[in-house]
Amino acid sequence: MPFAFQQGESLTGLVLAASNGLLDPNFHRTLVYITEHGPSGALGLVMNRPINKTLGEVAESPELPDALRGAPVFQGGPVRPTALLLARFQRGKTDEELRCQIVADPFELVEPRGQGWVRAFAGYAGWGEGQLERELGERSWVVCRPHTALLEQPVPPAIWEAFVGEDQRWRKLTALLPKFTGLN
């Protein structure tokens, strides 16, 4: 959901929705969760481009914990696309609060730390000093609050449209839906 963003504030924990005018194929119609943002640049993960494989199918390490083998893998961005990043997402007090922790040791993700979601990303999105701010000034991105809908499996087909659209009533309605809609 677009909202008033003050220039100079950190975007960490927010989502960038590619604007209609952003034609770069790496980011066309993407939703990017910003994991880090500061004066030296930013790092983000594309949340709506699953590669339809699991971590067990793409990981080269035989030491991968069994509990992580079914984690979905996403095209995280154009930077280092052959590198795998592991991330744990946790809900905050509401569905519009998400925290992300990038983890180097997969065994850290097996330890119970409350409810959450584990995702693997092939590559990531990165911006150098001032680059993201320039793109925001060019209106290439719409700054949005995150939502747990980003972590639904499978990825909802119209999730990008929902984030950039004017009608944001869906954010309130998702809390009323049953947790396992496939059982209805």
Radius of gyration: 16 Å
Order of helices and strands: EEEEHEEEHEHEHH
Task: Fill in the CATH topology.
Answer: VC0467-like
Strand content: 25-35%
User: Low-confidence runs (pLDDT<50, min 5 residues)?
Assistant: 173-177
Q: What is the 3D form?
A: globular
CATH architecture term: 3-Layer(aba) Sandwich
CATH superfamily: VC0467-like
Number of helices: 5
Please tell me the overall pLDDT.
87
Report the strand count.
9
The termini sit apart by: 28 Å
- Structure classification: alpha+beta
> What is the CATH C level class, in words?
Alpha Beta
Helix content: 10-25%
Supply the number of structural domains.
1
Largest sheet entry: 9 strands, mixed
Task: Explain what this protein looks like in three dimensions.
- This protein has 184 residues and is of the alpha+beta class.
- It has a single domain, classed as 3-Layer(aba) Sandwich (VC0467-like), CATH 3.40.1740.
- The protein contains five helices and nine strands, in the order ββββαβββαβαβαα.
- It has helices at residues 55-58, 107-110, 131-137, 159-164, 170-173, and strands at residues 15-18, 31-38, 41-46, 50-54, 72-75, 79-91, 98-103, 117-127, 141-144.
- It is globular.
- The protein starts with 14 loop residues before the first strand and ends in an 11-residue tail after the last helix.
- Residues 173-177 have low confidence and may be disordered.
List the helices and strands and how they pair.
Elements: E1 15-18, E2 31-38, E3 41-46, E4 50-54, H1 55-58, E5 72-75, E6 79-91, E7 98-103, H2 107-110, E8 117-127, H3 131-137, E9 141-144, H4 159-164, H5 170-173
Parallel strand pairs: 5-8
Antiparallel strand pairs: 1-2, 1-9, 2-3, 3-8, 4-5, 6-7, 6-8
